[in-house]
Design brief:
The structure is a homodimer. Chain A contains 19 helices and 20 strands. Chain A is of the alpha/beta class. In chain A, the strands form five sheets. In chain A, strands 10, 11, 13, 14, 15, 16 and 17 form a seven-stranded mixed beta sheet that branches. A four-stranded mixed beta sheet of chain A has the order 3-4-2-12. Chain A has a four-stranded mixed beta sheet with strand order 9-8-20-19. In chain A, a hairpin with an 8-residue loop joins strand 5 and strand 6. The radius of gyration of chain A is 23 Å and the shape is globular. Chain A starts with 18 loop residues before the first helix and ends in a 6-residue tail after the last helix. The interface between A and B is large, with 127 and 127 residues.
Chain lengths: ~525, ~525
């Protein structure tokens, strides 16, 4: 196992220079309510029975045995698989039935802790836990004020700050938007730094080039110490398959860097069914499983015990236009079933989020997001990327959408807690006190519980029509516009060890000076 | 059992006067695609274990034994319960532990068919089936064109027509909006007639007065024949408890009329937790169960075997303003657990729908609706009122909201079907044909399946940002505005036996002439 569920020493404490610094830092720290990793107390929703799951697993083995997977531009991976007993012809790797599964099950941890620089924000990934992270990847942003435009590093910082300020977001994420104002070959430095500096939640490393992955690990070592990083996951990193059935050199390179450093990878086929996989749920599942098995097993061949996550990003396309669609029933079935496959494999599972095709934070965006997010929770997903902010099929990070989704994440946290069956929860005395034909508004039990009884939305307007109209008749997006602006106005950076900050800034400056800017 | 799941003779066929009429009717009948009652092929989502459920049942028995239920303004019901062994003091009825449950379990059907005048539209209520019906009760309508105004009988007919035109809506519902332009004491005649005349799906009767319930039964007898009605459910009727723990004379009167006529009743505590029940989930559940047990058992005392449904409408209130809230996690937990309690009791279950507090069809409306509708399906709800059109906590029926929700209902029907594990579903040949690094867009399997592979939304815009913008940058509500107008423009009334229509019109005219208009 890469790391235990509990008992990690507080990583920043080791580097803190003294009590005075800590006290100074504490004074500057905003009193933010933050929620821990969700521990689910409700049963799982499942859509396949034992027989169906075994069928999908057999089909995945058939794909791996008969068709195989391409490992492109990476001789080392081919050599690893040859040594492990696979059949290699050119870049095509074919696997004896059950081999990748047995490699994963031999050494991959069932669950692990990703340490945050503030140990109170460390998250447990796996088991009956769920971690919410923000949107990942969009080159555009959208807000009511500015409409849609290319994202900048300023937007990136803003989304890091918003995720930091949101109690139900447990994780700072990775590419919360793509800062296209910075050169491609150096922007990862500013991105990773922003997560460290403007948040104290766990975060993700760069995967766009093996060298950028290595930079991410170096920066993590500055923050956490090299020794701590060697035996603890402090980075979790998104490795996408090039579906169908291809691993490319960039992704394999990043995967190897992270696995070698004992850092976590989320091995994720990116599927738009009908294009990158068959148009059917069962066909998509078999292909996804085959791809995940080979990616996660590769990480185990590189370093047995490196944390790996079974990821799947699966949606469909419109068969009329080819455009990606979200929140429709077929991807929901893939999501539920894939979670079951991950549990049988015995590693943590990542999928879902608040996905939508809508360009704006309207009813389409909300229907589709909710129809993705609730299944994500009920399926028992362990790590949820795109939890908040996703718009336009992932092309835009929405400011209003971010806080609207964040509100929904808070609701999911309550739902996952299940039914309180304590004596206070049963409330028999309240029913005795009130009796038939009266009401519970002022009774002792209501008085004692009213502050925490019900989830309180930060976005919804529940007032009367008349009051709502008198207050301007705003829609949810207009209210959300005020919410994110207030959050950014109230933002205060979490404390950071000045020595760590200095070392990071120095590292980045040196790196940036070492080679010219490039957008490749 | 009131009626069998299958084998009902086609009710309208009996009254048809001859082949020529039938052929004439068929020519005028639009070629509408209609979906049958959902048969769920995915497992249930449950939130309580055996122990938790038994605890709630014990607490319900304690409420019934210690506190009891008020039966107001109905001597007959008090007499029935006295004879059954309950303890009666004034209007308060206390029940020996287990008595109401044993009465229900002795005679209430586990599932039943509600016959429609078009036998193809008959629905099965109970078991692993789900039936979607439209919104019920709003005095206002809302549309983008007119904003919010009082509803009229014209609106009522429009929503009946929209429900008729919607494949995923199986049921015409009841008070799709309240036609406040008609006198209160006569409008039920026009409402019931509209369901019969403008749709051929099953519908609901009036419950606002025992005499109006009796009129509903009379009209059903004109349509289906008295003999058929005597042994088949052709009406399903919403009986609300006056929570906490009160049955009033109006509701008991309507309940008795329908039970005596062997027609179905949905016995439903209307709960805003914190006002009509305790602020906790477990407390609300125990009270709901106590109320449902006594209401459904009363129907069985009136006529053993009359179909009854375990209903619950449970939401919360804002503890700040007292306003009702929807789509929040606590009501979702109530919904899931109540479905489990209904299954243990052994009668069909009704809850949920597309509920929201939003005044307009915006993101709030959609998040809240989806967060109610998906749990409604996953819980195994058998009859879903408010499936489409609900706005503003039930105060407004929304035209745009109606078609937006209807689109979601279609998705729920697909989701309920589960994963296709046939050879075609497995798609191994497609994966073999395409192979690594290619795509599935043109492969034989995709070609063969593309028309039915994915649910096709009638509302979502999945196009590129550029195309969406070029087409006016509409939001979902603006697109929905066009959808409902097109549906109404395309509407053609289903055929009806002219003799039946004449008899209904005559009955209504006679009733209306018999006493003066009144708004009480």
């Amino acid at each position: 196992m890469a790391s235990a569920e509990a008992g990690n020493p507080p990583p920043t404490a080791r580097r803190t220079r003294g009590g005075a610094d800590v006290r100074r830092a504490a004074r500057g720290h905003p009193k933010l309510q933050q929620l821990p990793t969700i521990t689910r107390r409700i049963p799982l929703t499942e859509v396949l029975d034992e027989e169906g799951l075994a069928l999908i697993e057999r089909n995945a083995d058939t794909i791996l045995e008969e068709i195989g997977i391409e490992f492109r531009d990476d001789e080392e991976c081919l050599a690893l698989w040859r040594a492990a007993g696979a059949d290699i012809r050119g870049t095509r790797v074919r696997f004896p039935r059950g081999l990748p599964r047995s490699i994963v099950q031999r050494s991959a941890p069932r669950l692990f802790t990703q340490a945050a620089r503030n140990p109170e924000r460390s998250v447990v990934i796996g088991g009956n836990h769920t971690v919410f992270a923000p949107v990942y990847g969009p080159p555009f942003i959208r807000s009511l004020d500015e409409g849609r435009r290319y994202a900048t590093i300023e937007d990136f910082r803003n989304f890091v700050k918003l995720a930091y300020m949101t109690p139900a977001i447990h994780h700072s994420g990775g590419t919360v938007c793509e800062p296209v104002d910075l050169p491609v070959n150096k922007r990862h430095l500013d991105m990773v730094y922003s997560h460290i500096r403007y948040s104290d939640k766990p975060f993700m490393g760069s995967v766009t080039h093996p060298l950028r992955a290595a930079d991410s690990v170096e920066m993590a070592r500055i923050v956490f110490g090299a020794e701590f990083v060697e035996s603890n996951a402090v980075l979790i990193n998104l490795i996408n398959a090039n579906s169908p059935m291809v691993w490319d050199g960039t992704m394999l390179g990043a995967l190897k860097v992270y696995a070698r450093a004992n850092q976590a990878t989320i091995v994720t086929p990116f599927i738009l069914a009908g294009a990158m996989s068959p148009v059917t749920v069962a066909g998509t599942l078999a292909q996804v499983l085959a791809e995940v098995l080979t990616g996660t097993a590769t990480a185990q061949l590189v370093r047995p015990g490196a944390p790996v996550v079974f990821g799947v990003f699966a949606s469909s396309i419109s068969m009329q236009s080819g455009a990606p669609t979200f929140g429709t029933p077929e991807p929901t079935l893939v999501l539920f079933a894939a979670a079951q496959l991950a549990r049988r494999l015995g590693i943590p599972f990542r999928t879902g989020g608040s996905l939508c095709a809508s360009k704006i934070p309207d009813a389409q965006a909300a229907y589709e997001s909710a129809q993705t997010l609730l299944p994500t929770l009920l399926a028992g997903t362990n790590f949820v990327l795109h939890g908040a902010g996703w718009l336009e099929g992932g092309l835009a990070s929405g400011y209003e959408k971010f806080v609207m989704d964040a509100d929904q994440l808070g609701m999911m946290q309550v739902l996952a807690g299940g039914v309180d069956l304590s004596e206070n929860g049963q409330a028999l005395d309240a029913i005795r006190e009130v009796g038939p034909g009266s009401h519970f508004l002022g009774c002792a039990h209501t008085q004692a519980n009213f502050e925490t009884a019900f989830y309180r939305s930060s976005i919804a307007d529940n007032n009367s029509f008349e009051q709502w109209e008198a207050e301007g008749g705003l829609d949810a997006a207009q209210r959300a516009n005020k919410v994110w602006k207030r959050l950014l106005a109230d933002y205060e950076a979490p404390p950071i060890d000045p020595g760590v900050d200095e070392a990071l800034v120095e590292f980045i400056a040196k790196k940036k000076a070492a080679f010219p800017d490039s957008n490749v």
